[in-house]
Specification:
279 residues; alpha+beta; 14-stranded antiparallel beta sheet; 48% strand
Length: 279
């Protein structure tokens, strides 16, 4: 290739790279980052709210590591229980300062739980969990979550309806999440341990935030949460936005702390530990 042709080829390559870079920057990137961060923080709240509540109220066979043997309910948690198997049952969990849970996350605050019946056999039995200043790391959670046993679906899998009204605060940012949907128990329902549970969520959530981007509606489609992994491993959340919807994809079943966020042809990597877009 002569010098002039080589120079032209390099110029064309530079232009292509420049256009790709501009496209990846995406004029909507700040909003996309904020929407992705909100979903990541909401997911963290779901995981850490459900851990201790499930451990105390969904014990099939009473074996470890459920109940007081669960890593979600270590010795630093003060448990007041009106009596397992006696309904209505009331359980209060008080987390002392610096009380660490799984992954060394410090927790504090109070969770109050009221159960009306056996959540594994009695259709219509409900569990209402109220969070009073419950804090995980720098994330504070208040509000209520209601779980209702609906029996088995057509595939013979236990199903529950869920209704959440929770406010999550982090670094001065406040997110109010209202959610209604279905939880399907895929694995671990009939086993004694609590740390082998795999469940699927389908439903719709609305988010109202204190940030500049306002509210949004989010559709959860087959979002699978794996307790052995500690993160969602598959499924999508679609955020309905005026210009371009945002799709948060948790993958194809592989265990990791990452999700992809796609908007208007641009794709980002979301870290579920830091709640930030990488790169």
């Amino acid at each position: 290739m002569n010098a002039s042709l080589k120079t032209a080829a390099l110029a064309a390559f530079a232009l292509t790279v420049g256009l790709t870079s501009c496209n990846r920057q995406d004029s909507l990137a700040p909003e996309t980052r904020a929407l992705g961060a909100d979903e990541s923080v909401a997911d963290l709240a779901d995981r850490h709210m459900e851990g201790p509540v499930d451990a105390m109220t969904l014990r099939h066979g009473g074996g470890t590591p459920c109940g007081g043997e669960s890593p979600f309910v270590p010795e630093c948690v003060t448990v007041t229980d009106s009596g397992e198997g006696l309904y209505p049952r009331t359980v209060t969990l008080e987390f002392g300062e610096g009380c660490e849970g799984p992954n060394g996350m410090p927790r504090s605050g109070v969770i109050e739980i009221v159960v009306t019946g056996d959540l594994g056999t009695e259709i219509g039995a409900t569990r209402t969990a109220t969070f009073d200043g419950f804090q995980v790391g720098n994330v504070t959670m208040t509000g209520t979550r209601v779980l209702t046993f609906e029996g088995e679906n057509e595939d013979g899998l236990p199903t529950y309806s869920q209704n959440h009204d929770v406010t999550v605060s982090r670094n001065g940012h406040t997110l109010t999440r209202n959610y209604a949907g279905t939880l399907t128990w895929l694995e671990g329902f009939d086993t004694e341990p609590c740390d082998d549970n795999v469940v699927q969520r389908d439903g719709v959530a609305t988010h109202e935030t204190s940030g500049a981007w306002g509210g949004s509606t989010r559709t959860l489609d087959a979002v699978v949460h794996s307790r052995p992994c500690g993160y969602p491993i598959s499924g999508t959340v679609t955020v309905d936005r005026p210009q371009h919807n945002v799709v948060i994809d948790f993958g194809d079943g592989e265990c990791d702390n990452l999700a992809t966020v796609t908007r208007n042809g641009n794709t980002y990597i979301l870290n579920l530990d830091t709640h930030e877009i990488e790169g």
